[in-house]
Design a protein that fits this description.
106 residues; alpha+beta; HIT family, subunit A; binds guanosine-5'-monophosphate; binds zinc ion
Length: 106
């Protein structure tokens, strides 16, 4: 999607380093970390939020991506967060899963 910051990141427009990636998603560091390690798992397809996602299999693979990205980052203990909608604090309307570990300040 043209005006979506995460679509631009996925497209490589900002040269963002991916700490992990696969067919379904890219994983990169949050620009404003709320923990010692704060990663974002972002599906390659543009879906506004969990409310717009119908693909159960993709959701399952995204959670497996969380696990693999955490393993690659050396994390054995971490919190996952999905903000859905403005009132929940969602700021970027392209579905993403936060991975937070160590001194979590949410
Ligand atoms: P939300 O509040 O939508 O669940 O989370 C959006 C997250 O994306 C925030 O934690 C914010 O810091 C992060 N973020 C917003 N813009 C950028 C960006 O351009 N690059 C990166 N790496 N993270 C971003
Ligand atoms: Zn997008």
């Amino acid at each position: 999607m043209q005006d979506c910051i995460f679509c631009k990141i996925i497209n490589g427009d900002f040269g963002t380093e991916f700490v992990y990636e696969n067919e379904d998603a890219v994983v990169f560091k949050d620009i404003n970390p709320k923990a010692n390690t704060h990663l974002l798992v972002v599906p390659r397809i543009h879906v506004e939020s969990l409310n717009e996602l119908d693909d159960e299999a993709l959701l399952g693979r995204l959670m497996m991506t969380v696990k693999k990205a955490a393993q690659k980052a050396g994390l054995s203990s971490y919190r996952t967060v999905i903000n859905t909608g403005k009132d929940a604090g969602q700021e970027v309307f392209h579905l993403h899963i936060h991975i937070l570990s160590g001194d979590i300040r949410l």
